[in-house]
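lol forgot to send this yesterday, sorry. struct tokens for the thing we talked abt
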């Protein structure tokens, strides 16, 4: 038995001007999504926001929004 923790899981970073390109930003976003899926998130439970500032920097926040109660698959033979 595991202890379910419904708090969101967040991965974030801030990159300064010159530290990123559009391609590296897209790769970073995909890697954050892959990491959260690897932790058990479904793609529909992941929110990713990127915000650019006036000086050319960017903030990226990937959040796994967990439901209040864990979702358990039906046992074999149970009706759905």
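and heres what i got for the seq, position by position
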């Amino acid at each position: 038995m595991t202890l379910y923790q419904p708090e969101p899981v967040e991965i974030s970073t801030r990159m300064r001007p010159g530290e990123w390109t559009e391609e590296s930003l897209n790769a970073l976003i995909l890697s954050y999504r892959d990491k959260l899926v690897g932790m058990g998130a479904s793609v529909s439970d992941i929110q990713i926001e990127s915000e650019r500032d006036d000086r050319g920097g960017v903030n990226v926040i990937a959040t796994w929004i967990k439901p209040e109660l864990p979702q358990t698959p039906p046992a074999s033979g149970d009706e759905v």
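DSSP finds one helix and three strands in the chain. anyway ping me if u want another try
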